[in-house]
Design goal:
Blueprint: H1 5-10, E1 14-18, H2 22-34, E2 38-42, H3 45-55, E3 59-63, H4 71-80, E4 89-93, H5 98-106, E5 111-114, H6 119-142, E6 147-153, H7 160-173, E7 178-182, H8 190-194, H9 202-206, H10 215-219, E8 223-224, E9 230-232, H11 246-257, E10 262-267, H12 273-280, E11 284-289, H13 293-308, E12 316-321, H14 332-339, E13 343-347, H15 351-360, H16 364-367, H17 372-385
Parallel strand pairs: 1-2, 1-3, 3-4, 4-5, 6-10, 6-11, 7-9, 7-10, 11-12, 12-13
Antiparallel strand pairs: 8-9
Helix pairs in contact: 3-4, 7-17, 11-12
The chain binds adenosine-5'-diphosphate (ADP) and magnesium ion.
Magnesium ion (MG) binds next to helix 7.
Length: 394
């Protein structure tokens, strides 16, 4: 995201100035407003407490010596109230003694500036404190972000969509909030299982202005499966869409990740900027390969692409799907060695079951909860949702 520059950044910050001296209030109000800040004034300690609660400012500049109650008491009061506990406060006082500074900081102020205030210093401290607060806020926000796991097939038809939807279904059946997105520009296949012909999908989101890609507009286009899995379908046909662009793709991922505990992405095997953005938005990427030699070669080329995007090490795992009834042509150990990544799971051949569960309109793991395919997928799920990724031992 581009930097909007100091004044644009400040235009959103709202400062509450608490001081009983009219001349100081007027000077500070003028100086901060000139920098693009929104300013509210309070003319006493009690007024300061009331406005801190009613106006919800981004930062408070608080005089210590006031006739009704002192700034230290105001500070105590604000720190004791859940609504104002974390509001950034800069104390302002004529007293420049170390003792006063210490008691100001002890009462919970974040910083302390002596009067007469040097405006350059005060401005710099305000900016620094606002930035620090924003950093802490975005850290807190990002810890709420769900885990984003991308799945890329070595080529079409290796079983990527089947794996994504079954892992998503298992997560939902475990009671986890989970959403799956089919981030394909054309020929999606989610809609065949979840969509109605009039549903809006990824194509419609791609037509919106990026600023309109919010929790609300995305949620409105999610379909809910019977298991509890939420899905955003890709386009129904090649006519329907859609160029995927990196800005919208990333926004959709970020917004959706805030709404769920797990976000599974069905990604294309492609090296374009939109796929790069999607992959960089993932916490983990699983490349899915079958046991055929050309699939393994194709997986290797995708891994090279990921590497060129800086996606390496145990941010990447390999899943192996046996797509044909013919026996394995390459042992798992050799596949792991050839591809240079851990194998996080294998899915045995299940041609008839895939077709039968599809006809029933449910995922394979619901249709056959006791089958080897289901237990293998459950094991794969344990590995990819663990703190650190470890592969199969063979
Ligand atoms: N383990 C499996 N055994 C047999 N057939 C499978 C298996 N997994 C998927 N399939 C079948 O392979 C076809 C392609 O699967 P799909 O998941 O759509 O692949 P992709 O998303 O990689 O194109 C589907 O008909 C699906 O039912
Ligand atoms: Mg697919």
């Amino acid at each position: 995201m581009s930097d909007p520059g100091p004044s644009a950044k400040n235009s959103l910050a709202h400062i509450l100035i608490v001081d009983d001296e009219e001349s100081i209030l007027r000077f500070l109000e003028y100086s901060f407003a000139a920098q693009g800040y929104r300013v509210t004034r309070a003319t006493s300690g009690l007024d300061g407490i009331a406005k801190a609660k009613s106006e919800d400012p981004d930062l408070i500049i608080l005089d210590v010596m006031m006739p009704d109650i002192s700034g230290l008491e105001v500070c105590d009061h604000l720190r004791a109230d859940a609504k104002t506990r974390f509001m950034p406060i800069i104390m302002l006082s004529a007293a420049g003694q170390v003792d006063d500074r210490v008691s100001g900081l002890r009462s919970g102020a974040d910083d302390y500036v002596t009067k007469p205030a040097n405006m350059d210093e005060l401005m710099a401290r305000v900016t620094a404190l606002l930035n620090r607060t924003r950093r802490m806020q975005s850290q807190a926000d990002s810890s709420k972000r769900g885990k984003v796991i991308g799945f890329i097939g070595a080529k079409g038809g290796v079983g990527t969509t089947t794996t994504v939807l079954n892992l998503g279904t298992l997560l939902a059946l475990r009671g986890k909030p989970v959403t799956a997105i089919e981030l394909h520009a054309e020929f999606g296949s989610f809609y065949r299982q979840f969509g109605r012909s009039d549903d809006e999908n990824l194509s419609d989101l791609m037509a919106l202005d990026p600023a309109l890609l919010t929790a609300r507009t995305i949620s409105a286009r999610l379909s809910l499966a019977q298991s509890g899995l939420k899905v955003l379908c890709g386009p129904r046909s090649h006519e329907e869409l859609a160029e995927l662009d990196d800005e919208r793709v990333l926004k959709i991922i970020d917004e959706t990740a805030q709404m769920t505990e797990y976000l599974l992405l069905d990604l294309p095997h492609s090296a374009n900027p939109a796929n790069a953005a999607a992959c960089k938005g993932c916490d983990l990427i699983i490349v899915i390969t079958s046991n055929e030699p050309d699939s393994i070669q194709s997986a290797k080329s995708m891994l090279d692409v990921l590497k060129s995007w800086g996606i390496v090490g145990n941010m990447v795992g390999i899943a192996h799907v046996t797509r044909t009834a013919l026996g394995d042509s390459m042992p798992l150990r050799e596949i792991a060695r050839t591809l240079g990544h851990e194998i996080v799971g294998t899915v045995p051949f299940a041609g008839d079951l895939c077709a039968a569960s599809y006809n029933k309109g449910v995922q394979l793991v619901q249709f056959q909860p006791g089958h080897l395919v289901t237990s293998n997928l459950n094991e794969m799920l344990d590995r990819i949702t663990a703190e650190t990724l470890t592969g199969l031992r063979f």
